[in-house]
Amino acid sequence: MNTSSQAAQVVIAVIPIAGIMMGGAVALLYLIYAHKQKMLMIEKGVFKKTRIDLRGIVFFSGFPLSATGLGLTLFFAIKDGINYGMLSGLIPLFIGISFIIYNFLKHSTTSDRG
According to the model, what pLDDT value does residue 2 have? Predict the structure, then answer.
């Protein structure tokens, strides 16, 4: 028996749409504010460009990806055996391993030059 009214169904359908619109508005306002702040800092001459440590980000994102992938792979291997469901764990596992390997290879090639 369906006891909910059509008005309640419309309200329930509008809630996610309103949430997405409000989230988009907040993100847009933040981007506008950050842009204006940078422009003022450039005008006053106090702006310093920040360097992003890409190697550190890649290295330290490799560990959680590998751990999550290993956990998912073991879970699906125990639950269902070897099947296509294991890809949901193998993909992040190998991406994380490749991030860690990339960092070690990049570190060994840059330390030889210096």
Answer: 61
Q: Which of 44, 61, 72, 55 minimizes the C-alpha distance to 96?
A: 61
Closest C-alpha among 105, 114, 112 to residue 55: 105
Helix (H, G, I), strand (E, B) or coil at 6: helix
Give the tokens for residue 37.
């702040």
Query: Per the structure block, which two tokens stand in for 90?
Result: 């193998």
What number is the average pLDDT over the span 35-58? 90
Residues 6+ apart with CB under 8 A from 106: 55
Q: Is 88 in contact with 76 (CB distance < 8 Å)? A: yes
Mean pLDDT, rounded, for 70-78: 93
pTM flag (> 0.70): no
